[in-house]
Amino acid sequence: MNECKPISVPCAIGVPLHNGQSPQDSDEKNEMSNKPYREAVGSLMFAATVSRPDIMFAVNQVSRFLNNPGIEHWCAVKRILKYLQGTKNIGIRYNGDLQLTIYSDADFAGDCDTRRSTTGYVSLLATGPVTWSSHRQKCVTKSTAEAEYIAASDAVAEIVWLRNFLKEIKISVSDSTPLYVDNQSAIKLMKNNEHHKRTKHIDMMS
């Protein structure tokens, strides 16, 4: 991959991966048998977990097919590697401001096989990321607002843990931590948590 052509984004937009792309016959399985899929995904997961939050979503996608990867899945792995090749000089920088913030988002019904949504969040301290995650939600949501609401709930749990951790190591942060969500319906639900027709089931689930 040292001589590969770098690309600007780690995953193809609007081209979801799914189980239908897994090998369907012995010829396709033989074609994939010599591909180091598990090893590559394992290495990418290490990078995503330690210092590359920008590939976390893409790595989460390809990690779903470790048991039976297909050519499309392998191409997605190589795409992440090409992205890393072109961004290998990117790093994380922190400044002196200890303001703690967190952003959350959700990919509504993004898993074509289960229709489960993906939660994503990143917490920033001193303007740099300190914790981040991309994972499938445990349940199938009925709307974008519901998926975003659950993602925000996960982000709040993360920020509570992070604030307690910073307190233990004697790092002082502001009294409140801003949470940024890009869905107006989810924000309204958080501010006015009433049992509306489309959201009354969320209270018990979350």
Automatic annotation (TrEMBL):
Domain of life: Eukaryota
GO biological process: DNA biosynthetic process
InterPro entries named in the record: DNA/RNA_pol_sf (IPR043502)
Protein name: Polyprotein
Organism: Popillia japonica
